[in-house]
Amino acid sequence: MEAFQLLSRGGARFHKQRFKSDVQLFTHAVTKPEKSVNAPVNQDSTLPPELDFFKYAQGGRAKRKAGNTDPSSSSAPSRPDVRSKRRKTNHETEDFDGNEDDGDDAPEGDALRERVRVTAKGSNVPPPIEVFDDLLDRFKIPHRLMSNLMDNHYKYPTGRRDLAAISPTGTGKTLSYLFPIMSLLGAPISSLKGTEGSGVRAILLAPTRELAHQIYNECLKLAVRRKWRVVLYSKATASTLRDKNARDKVDIVISTPLRLVASIQEGNLDLNNVRHLVLDEADRLLDSEFLAQVQEVISACTHPEIQKAVFSATLPAGAEQLAMGILRNPIRIVVGLKDTPLPLISQTVTYVADDASKLPSLLTYFAQPYNPPLLIFTSTQPRATSLAEELTLNGIANVDCLHAGMTKKERDDAVSRMRRGESWVMVSTEVMARGMDFKGVREVINYDFPTSVQSYIHRIGRTGRAGRDGKAVTYFTDEDAPYLKSIANVLLQSGSSVPDWILKLPKPSKLKKKQMGKIKRAETVNAARKIGRNDAIKKR
Ligand SMILES: Nc1ncnc2c1ncn2[C@@H]1O[C@H](COP(=O)(O)OP(=O)(O)OP(=O)(O)O)[C@@H](O)[C@H]1O
Questions:
Q1: Do β-strands 118-121 and 331-335 pair in parallel, antiparallel, or remain unpaired?
Q2: What CATH number does the domain containing 290 carry?
Q3: Does 461 sit in the ligand 1 pocket, CB within 6 Å?
Q4: What DSSP element (H or E) covers 5?
Q5: Atom of ligand 1 nearest to the CA of 157
Q6: Residue 513's pLDDT band (boundaries 50, 70, 90)?
Q7: Range of 81's domain?
Q8: Adjacent-strand bridge partners of 428
Q9: For the complex shown, is ipTM > 0.95?
Q10: How far apart are CA 471 and CA 349, in angstroms?
Q11: 438 lines ligand 1 (CB under 6 A)
Q12: Which of 93, 104, 290, 442 is positioned for an S-S bond with 371, CB 3.0–4.6 A?
């Protein structure tokens, strides 16, 4: 999973004379490793085919420089290549002779980035790495953290600069910030005896509770074997952390913005020791609904060495401008093409005339063999509930529903059922569109047309994750037709075919695009249904 590796390398090129002491540190790290890691370090440098996200994109539309048209050049590196890279790395570190590094690595780094379709911008962008061995050579990664990574079968790796990372859905952005943060924190605060100040050292922000919970679970996987104190911020944990003694033992807080802001305003949480701040799903967190809260969190993080990073699969120009205002001298990394889904997801659009015709179309679909689990997106909470009821009443098995109007317990239960594989069909709203990682989702159906191009990209990105294939179907009615062209462009960019007549449609104006999410739809998906709701609920 080279994308992770490319997001991983922090720090700038060294001026070896000026930073002699640092150079010695690195030399030491190479010649005398801290401790050997229990778990096997990745010996097999070949990228597994299922994690080669762009394997289907070899003939795609990504811009490629002349002279690199051989499709095989986008395949995984062969072992001899990696060996020579490793030798070079060792040679470089052995060669700390006081000469200024003239950037020998740059052409090789450029070639690697080009091969895996990553673009990086910013001053002194460090060269990418290919294998975990390189990571061990360059940084003192705590051996327990490395073992935890291996235990979770993360074979391929994912430093310190502000970062804007844009990488398609399902490519492992979570690990690409968790791992470096935990590595840089080094050890739980409880074992650092005051050397790292007191108070929370990392804040990870996500737009939904479900996503915050998922990030928390990922973080716990890396936290085993050490007494890391990772807190999923909630009413209950906020109350516990009113006590400063309890607060000072916390390493990492994962939260939605509002919950955190409430505690900051009450004076029950100080963030002046925060060294790492991540905005996951940054464009969502920087939109008008969250912006003021996020800004309040950022201004509470007053540590001079704070490292900030924004991550998302989409970063429209407005959000990117806001992000760049927040970040200091950032590196900007784009994996693949910005705002473009992975070619692993095969996308189609289906004409359904009007709203009333959608349900019969969906039931026809369910009359054929289908591949559960699948996710269906509707535009509103009542429509999600109503569609789940209709499907149940029509005999579809294991239908579930999740939206923000449900209680916390109901939502948690629905996510758990989905994770356990008990839900075959999950009907949901935008709340599930971003970040949620249910590995096995084979298909996404946009029952209601997405509210924006970004919403489309995130919704369909619930399938085709971690290198798996996926399928996305989008229903459109006459009312949705003016917005079809925007979605068609995304299909085209990511290699799905689009009928000619759609391509000939006029481009919607900016004003029209804004209206995309505002189409009024009936509260229920079957106006004829007056009875039977309770039966449906009972059946579920
Ligand atoms: N190095 C790795 N090797 C194998 N699997 C990985 C690796 N890193 C992450 N994954 C898996 O890939 C899946 C997707 O990861 P993640 O949820 O972080 O994607 P994402 O890029 O944040 O997607 P989204 O944009 O939808 O939030 C997860 O199931 C995760 O466990």
A1: antiparallel
A2: 3.40.50.300
A3: yes
A4: helix 2-6
A5: 1
A6: confident
A7: 30-114
A8: 377, 402
A9: yes
A10: 11
A11: no
A12: 442
